[in-house]
Amino acid sequence: MLMMGFAGFLGLLKILLMGLAAFGLFDAAFRREDAFRAADKQNKVFWLIVLALALAVSFFFSIFSFLPVIGVIASIVYIVDVRPALRQVSGGSGWGRRGSSSDGPYGPWNGGR
Q: Core-most of 14, 39, 101, 111, by most CB within 10 Å?
């Protein structure tokens, strides 16, 4: 019975790690490419590949392997470091942000006024 509880805990942990990587992947997919350059982070394609690999590794490999640990570290780096920098540069969440067509990455364009 104890082993079933431990297996259930590992299953929940695996789902949590996959959710972390999936959240980072979907968040990076909805961010603008120029925000990555403006925040002086790696480009969008790099983060999409890294986070997609993290999601795939956490799905296919056991938690006791070192590959899911690398994927978790990559996901945490994106969520803790890259995502706040992107939010600061783009000025919003990036998930359906509403604004004027004249809004740039640093705010509205006022026409030199």
A: 39
* Residue corresponding to tokens 């026409």: 111
How do 107-108 and 103-104 pair as beta strands? Answer: antiparallel
Residue 50 predicted with pLDDT over 90: yes
Cβ-Cβ contacts under 8 Å for 57 (sequence gap 6 or more): 67, 68, 70, 71
- Residue pair 55/1 in contact (Cβ under 8 Å)? The answer is no
Q: Structure pTM?
A: 0.71
Q: E-assigned strands of 10-113?
A: 103-104, 107-108
Q: Let me know how many helices (H) and strands (E) the chain has, helices first.
A: 5, 2
**Which DSSP state fits 42?**
-
What is the gyration radius of the CA atoms in the chain, in angstroms? 18
Angle 7-12-17 (CA atoms, 0-180°, nearest 5)?
125
Per-residue pLDDT of 63-72, as tens digits, reads 778 888 899 9
